[in-house]
Amino acid sequence: MKSLKDIVTGGCGFIGSHLVDALLAQGRQVYVIDNCRVGRQSNLINHANNPNLEIFEVDVSERKTMTKLFTGADRVFHLAAMADIIPSINNPELYIDANVNGTYSVVEAAHKAGVRRFIYAASSSCYGIPKSYPTSEMSQLEPQYPYALTKMLGEQIVLHWAQVFSLPAVVLRMFNVYGTRARTSGTYGAVFGVFLAQKIANKAFTVVGDGKQTRDFTYVSDVVEAFIKAAESNLVNEVMNVGSGSTYSINYLVKLLQGDVVHIPKRPGEPDCTFADISKISHMIDWKPKISLEEGVNKMIENIDYWKDAPVWSPESIQEETKIWFDKLS
Ligand code: UDP
Question: How many domains does the chain contain in total?
Answer without folding.
Answer: 2
